[in-house]
Predict the 3D structure of the following.
Amino acid sequence: MSTVGEVLALIRDRRDVTRAEIGHLTGLSRTAVASRVAALTERGLVVETEQAPSTGGRPAALLSFNADTGVVLSAAIGRSRTRVAVCNLAGDVLDLADIDQQPDLGPGDLMPDVVKRLDALLDARAGARVYGVGVSLPGTVDRVRGASLDSPILPGWDGVELRPYLRELTDAPVVVDNDVNVIALAERSGERRAIDDLLVLKVSTGIGAGIITGGVLQRGAVQAAGELGHNKTPAAAGLPCRCGDSGCLEAIAGGWALVAELGRGGVNHVRDLVRIAHEGDADARRMIRDSGRHIGEVIAAAVNLLNPAVLVVAGDMAGAYEIFVAGLRETLYGNATALATRVLQVAPSTYGDRSGVIGCAAMALDEVLSPQAIDAL
């Protein structure tokens, strides 16, 4: 028999539904439907909207999910920029702020600033109930402890639990995951929700992949699935990587490597590289296209293995999407099988530079609005 949480999931999925439709879809009696809907309306999670078209007799009221009854908080933490947001319960961004930080800043210095910025955003939403918090980090994440497990990008963060910092702000559940995984969740929460086999490529300072197969996000045995940037490639043979090894894809195609290779004042991040590429800088344009070529060679094996329907390009490098993808397509389609690429679409991320915070919100909402969590209320 469907629970209160399962009825809410049905209403969220179908947007507008009548009590009779709920009964038909769940097999619940009229009384059981009424009691479950009453529990949800008392919490403010469901509201009655305009009347459904009448087929004779009194028109039935439509039930809708009330996305404005509370908020979730997002913090997408990066090496040189952290973006924080307040989102409604549909995952829509209500308020947004950026924190530009010095690279290699530790959690003890950055996290209090994150909490302060989120608190300031919440001031504009006085009285809003915080249902949950989603946080993303580059590198492998220990989701149980809510801490970085292995991140060359954020030295000093490994093993540091982030939930205690956020307890100053809210006692709502805090969920932590890898930055590319949350972008994959963002893609699945929007117009690509019907695509069950999806590969997300994030190219910024580092390189990572988010993998959805059969509609399920794949994290791996130790949460390390998608560490594409540290695959070995002949093109990087002998080149040192910041992970301590050599010959990694990142060492020749990651944003940090390109910026170091260019060695030009005022170009300190891949965002700067993208900017001067749009201004017509020939070296920047060549390097971005070559980065796409190198990544295409390596990701072709993943396309053969996973056979995704869509390859989404995200991260700061996507700011030069056409230049980057021109190189990517060249080697991807040259190295992957014709069958694996027959229906493959290569596309930019749906939400652009908001993908991180929207994905953090989607991750938090999956946790706090799950049937189990709602039933626990």
User: Anything to note?
Assistant: The chain has three domains: 4-65, 71-184+356-376, 192-349. The radius of gyration is 23 Å. The CA atoms of residues 230 and 248 lie 5 Å apart.
